[in-house]
Amino acid sequence: MTSAVSEVAGPVAAAIRGYLDHLAVERGLAANTLVSYRRDLRRYAHVLAQLSVGAIGEVRPGHVSEYLARLRAGDEDHPPLSASSAARAVIAVRGLHRFALREGLAADDPARAVRPPAPPRRLPKAISADDVDALLAGARLAEGPLAARDHALLELLYGTGARISEAIGLAVDDVDRESAAVVLRGKGSKSRLVPIGSYALRALEEYLVRSRPVLAASGRGGPVLFLNARGGALSRQGAWAILRSAAERAGLSRDISPHTLRHSFATHLLDGGADVRVVQELLGHASVTTTQVYTLVTVDRLREVYATAHPRALG
Q1: Is 163 known to be catalytic?
Q2: Which whole-number Å values give the CA distances from 229 to 41, 147, 152, 212, 242, in the listed order?
Q3: Catalytic residue among 102, 115, 259, 277
Q4: Which residue in 27, 112, 115, 187 is the catalytic one?
Q5: Which residue in 39, 70, 184, 209 could disulfide with 166, CB within 3.0 to 4.6 Å?
C-alpha cells in the first residue's frame, strides 16, 4: 500500500499518505474504494497547491468550498463531476480533515461545515394501468399449474405494493381470504396488514385451490405461499424470471422489475386521489418523506393533462 499512496504529491502529501494508510490498514477499506479515495485526494492536493496552501493545518473552509466548486465546474484536465461523484470526493476530503484533527496535524476541521452536493432525486419508474393489464395477461400464458402461480404472484405484487422479499416470504396463513387482507413483513421485521383487491384475491384463490397442491406434491415447500416447480420455496431469482417472462409475452420492451409494480401501485393510488399518508402505511415506509417522491410523478402527470386540456396553457 505504501507504494500506491506514494503517488500522492503536494503540500499535504504526508497527511494524505497517512490517511490512506489508516484506511487500508486500520479500516480495511476495499481496494477499489482506496483507488477512488487516492484519486480524489490527489486532485484535492493539486487544487490546494494552486491556492498556495502550504500544509494541512493551513486549509480553511473556503479552500474546501473552492475544491467542490471546481469539481462541479471541471477544468482543462477534468470534466465536470456529477453530484454523486462530487459527493464521494467531498466525503474523502472530510475524512482526511477529521483524520488530521484527530492526529494533531491541524488545530481544527475546515471541512466540517462543507456539505456534499445532494444527487438529484430519481423519480420511481411506473408503468401505465394498460401495461399492468398486459403484463398480468402475459403471466396467464404460462403452462400448467405455473400459470396460476405466476398470475397470483404478479397480481399480489401490484395489488398490495409488496416488496419482492415480502411476497416470496409469505406463508399460506398470511393471506386472510375472508377479510381480503394479507400480512406483509417488511424491513426491520415490521408487519403491516394490507388489503387485497378482488382481482388479486381471485388469482390467489385459483392458485391455492388448483395449483399449489399440485406443486406441493413435488417437494417440501412447507407453509410457504409461493412454490417453485419442484415444490420448494420460490426464490427471488425465480420471481424475477416470472416477471421477465410475463413482460416478454406481453411485448413490454422497457425494463420492468418487481419494484416497478410497487412503484406503479403507489403512483396509481395517488393518481386516483389516495392520501399520501395512506399510501405510506400501505408501502410500509417509516417516513412520509420517502413516499412523497411519488407525488412528484403525479404532479408531472397533472402538468401533462393541464398542458393539453387548458385553452390558455400554451401560447
Answers
A1: yes
A2: 53, 11, 15, 10, 12
A3: 259
A4: 187
A5: 184
